[in-house]
Amino acid sequence: MSNIARRGLHYIVQRKVADVVSKSSLENGQNRVIDASLSLIREKAKLKAKLVRNLGGAVATSALLGVPLGHNSSFIQGPAFAPPRIKEAIWCGSTNSTTEQGKVLDDPRVITDAGDIPIQDIRDCGVDDKRLMDVPPLRPLILGGDHSITFPVVRAVSEKLGGQVDILHFDAHPDLYDDFEGNYYSHASSFARIMEAHGRDQAKKFGVELHEMQTFAKDRAYLENLKLGEGVKGVYISIDVDCLDPAFAQGVSHIESGGLSFRDVITILQNLQGDIVGGDVVEYNPQRDTSDNMTALVAAKFARELAAKMSK
Ligand SMILES: [Mn+2]
User: Fold this and answer.
1) CA gyration radius for the chain?
2) How much is the pLDDT for 133?
3) Which residues of 3-35 are buried (b: 16+ CB within 10 A; e: fewer)?
4) EC number(s) in its UniProt entry (predicted)?
5) Which residue in 52, 91, 153, 253 is a FRET match for 196, CA 20 to 30 A apart?
6) Binding residues for Mn(2+)
């Protein structure tokens, strides 16, 4: 037998040993990888917060946290690949580094990046997504991922602040299914989990104010003069990119014609009065985007303007 053949045989024997590795030692190893990844995010967030404090003058800073979550999607996949594309577009040299109202994005007191949650590791290890709650930056600006992330983030923000928050939710869909296709944590159920409600009647019962596109022209003046967060701990803003008409954002999974224009959303945001304690930009699907990633730039501009509004 030649050396090569003997070596081959040796590897086959080794492989058989590896195949019978116990489930618990595999899980233990994966858990250590997850802990290390989450520790890295926490340490990064701590250092960034220290930098912001040392620079002085910041009451609140938006901290980007990418959540490449996709397994609660329905119909098609894709939002899991969004966070790096949105981040790339946020810092893209093709656009101005100031926001519309003059905040400088190069200033870490306006926007800083805490990293990305290791969703794939968490999922493979069977760890509940509730684990995500352990790592919120103080004022998280979440880049999804599918919309199911809003539930654990709002819960974490609310627990951290010790009370309820007002939620301003832009979407082509109310995401109020009790469960969707059997998934209790579906991206179509995030707001049902937040309010433990379902349907229009339940929305009424829980004090959810719904404004539909068909009455938007009539509601515009009211929506452009919102004052939220009074009597609660602040305002959380959730932007599903599919709230936009597909003319403005075709890179989404669930295209719904007749939606808002980008300017409609930005005007509502810019005029909003209230202390924004957290927010998310979700459901951008790079696999449906144009070849020049136009919708990534749209999602990025939402994140930039939201960061400007949050930071103070
Ligand atoms: Mn939607």
Assistant:
1) 22
2) 46
3) eeeeeeeeeeeeeeeeeeeeeeeeeeebeeebe
4) 3.5.3.1
5) 253
6) 147, 171, 173, 175, 240, 242
Distance 67 CA to ligand 1 centre (A): 17
Amino acid identity at 124: D
* H or E element in which residue 66 lies: strand 62-67
CA of 209 to the centre of ligand 1 (A): 17
In tens, the pLDDT along 200-239 reads 555 666 677 889 899 999 999 999 999 999 999 999 999 9
Query: Which two three-digit tokens encode residue 73?
Result: 């999607």
Q: What is the β-pairing status of strands 235-240 and 276-282?
A: parallel
pLDDT tens, position by position, 240-281: 999 999 999 999 999 999 999 999 999 999 999 999 999 999
Pick the CATH number of 23-310 from 3.40.50.300, 3.40.190.10, 3.40.800.10, 3.40.50.720: 3.40.800.10
